[in-house]
Structure formats: structure tokens, C-alpha cells
Amino acid sequence: MTGEDPYVDTKGVLLNKLDITSSSALSQAETDLSLAAMLRLSVHPLPGSYDLGHLQSFHRQIFGAVYPWAGELRTVDIARTGQDVFCRCAFIESYSAGVFADLAAEGRLMGLRRNAFVARLAHYYGEINAIHPFREGNGRTQRAFLGQLGRDAGWRIAWSAMDGHQNDTASAAALQGDTTLLATMFESLVRPI
């Protein structure tokens, strides 16, 4: 993260609707509330066009009870490590427009055989992760978003079976342009509905 961060208090805790001032307490509340929201989304799909606005709606649904800025694009640059900088905030909308236009041009991955679906899912997972449009909650939001897209395309993604370390390693490689580890990860997670 670079520069001033308007999303955190003086102790470095994300500003939240719950008035929680402890990072660990906020993390627990966020986990509990976002899990409940994601379960609702798995039963009641969120209509949309699988574009940036739709992704923002997912974030708002998942984190709206916790953060006042849920669903809003971040206004600060962030990084996973000193080397892995996500999309600069000034370019989120323009870069996203291209990614989501490509997804639409590919028919939102409908009608693909499993191997093709896995390869394209890895591509878009890597792209959406690189955009990282929100200050917090990007991973859960993209998993809910792509999980629904997968169901619409006839595939179930077994997120609960995902290995966190494998995801981190594969996502870091994708930030460098290599989605082969993501494709390998999705090989074990994608199943027909």
C-alpha cells in the first residue's frame, strides 16, 4: 500500500460500520458476516451483466454490513507484497472495461468443455485478482462472482476444497502473467453441475 490510506483509523484498523477498533475482532466479525452473505448469494443469484458494476454489487452484498465503502472502487494503490502491486486505482475502470468486454465476447464461458472452461476461468480469475478493485474483500468477492458465472455456464467450483497456499502461489504467478498454476488449481475444483 502506498501513501495515505483513508480506509483505516490511526491504529491501522479498517474503518467499519460496527465501530470495531481491534483488527482481530474486525476480522472475526467480517468473516462471520461475509460467510452468511455468501451463503445467501449461493441460494439467491445476483442478477447482472458480469461486468465491473456486477462485481461491485457482489462486494456490496458481501461486505455491506461491515464497511461503509462496500461496493465502491478503492481510491488508494495496494500491493500484496513489495513486488506484487495490483492495478493502480486510477486505471481500475479502464482496465476492467477491457477484461469484462473480453468475458462478454467469450459468451461468459458458456458452452465450453471442461478443459476450455478451466483454462478461461484461470485467465479471468487472474485478471480480476490483478484488478483488485476493492480495499478489502477482493478474494471472496471474485470467488462469489466467478462461482455464479460458473454455475450459469454449467460448472460448479468447489471453493471449499481450495488450498489457500496453492491459491496464493498461483495468484502471485498470475500477477506475473503465468496462469498455469491457477489452471492446475482449478483442475481439482471444477465439476459439472
UniProtKB/TrEMBL annotation:
Its EC number is 2.7.7.108. Residues 50-192 form the Fido domain. PROSITE patterns: FIDO. It holds the Pfam family Fic. InterPro entries: Fido, Fido-like_dom_sf. The keyword Lyase does not apply. It is an enzyme of class 2 (transferase). It catalyses: L-threonyl-[protein] + ATP = 3-O-(5'-adenylyl)-L-threonyl-[protein] + diphosphate; L-tyrosyl-[protein] + ATP = O-(5'-adenylyl)-L-tyrosyl-[protein] + diphosphate. Keywords: ATP-binding, Nucleotide-binding, Nucleotidyltransferase, Transferase. It comes from the Bacteria. The keyword Nucleotide-binding applies. PANTHER family: PROTEIN ADENYLYLTRANSFERASE FIC-RELATED. This is protein adenylyltransferase. It comes from Paractinoplanes hotanensis. The lineage of its organism: Bacteria, Bacillati, Actinomycetota, Actinomycetes, Micromonosporales.
